[in-house]
Write a structure and sequence with these properties.
single chain; about 230 residues; alpha/beta; Spore Coat Polysaccharide Biosynthesis Protein SpsA, Chain A; six-stranded mixed β-sheet; two-stranded parallel ribbon; 8 helices; globular
Length: about 230
């Protein structure tokens, strides 16, 4: 619970403000999450507890939705994610069907987070696709460059269905296991990942400390004069 509302419901509320989605389903292996989603009127599906990544979990849930052609993985710990960003990713897949996988990133607004392994970094190719993702500061600046921009990867993915179904047939890769980042499996198999740059600086809730910080912020906002 964060300021009286569960984390998963806060994410659900953000998704309900989107214009480009036909459905929103919570895929989980936790009965408590499943029950909580149904209690606030959402749709949920139970999946196997053996999945190593959210992508693998979504692929199982997708079997119940044969009509779905494009899929967005909006992670359940992103309570402040901008609905407009979700819509932009959805529209990118529809208007550019040659893009199999897309995600998003924003320039770092807090340089101190560069050393936080809970915050994922991405470096880009010249064409806007991802070159690499890491939990370490990326790149290491042996010679400081004022022109270089550090990008924080956001916890959202957009897939064409065919690519998602292919992705889960690949075994976890060595880089994926080392960094605990599923998108590296795609890069190791030669897939291209389009990265949309956004000014949405919201981050995921990965620790109790971050949850308490968000709660304090929300409580402060609710008591601020309008």
């Amino acid at each position: 619970m964060i300021a009286g509302v569960s984390l998963i419901e806060r994410v659900w509320q953000r998704v309900q403000a989107c214009q480009s989605l036909d459905a929103c389903v919570v895929a989980t292996d936790d009965q408590r999450i499943y029950d909580a989603v149904l209690a606030f009127g959402g749709e949920a599906v139970m999946t196997s507890p053996s999945h190593h990544t959210g992508t693998d979990r979504i692929a199982e849930a997708l079997q119940s939705y044969p009509q779905a052609t494009q899929i967005l993985n909006i992670q359940g710990d992103e309570p402040l994610i901008e609905p407009s960003l979700i819509d932009k990713l959805a529209e990118t897949l529809i208007t550019e069907p040659e893009i199999s996988l897309a995600t998003a990133a924003n320039p770092f607004s807090q340089p101190a987070l560069l050393d936080d392994p809970n915050v994922v970094k991405v470096v880009l190719r010249a064409d806007g696709n991802a070159l690499y993702f890491s939990r370490s500061p990326l790149p290491y600046q042996r010679q400081a460059s004022l022109e270089h921009t550090y990008y924080r990867h956001k916890g959202i993915y957009a897939y064409q269905r065919g690519f998602l179904e292919q992705f889960v047939t690949w075994p976890p890769s060595s880089l994926e296991v080392a960094e605990s980042l599923e998108q590296l499996r795609a890069l190791e198999h030669g897939a291209q990942i389009r990265v949309l740059i956004t000014d949405d600086t919201s981050g995921g809730i990965d620790t109790l400390e971050q949850a308490l910080e968000l709660e304090a912020l929300l409580n402060q906002s609710s008591h601020s004069p309008q």
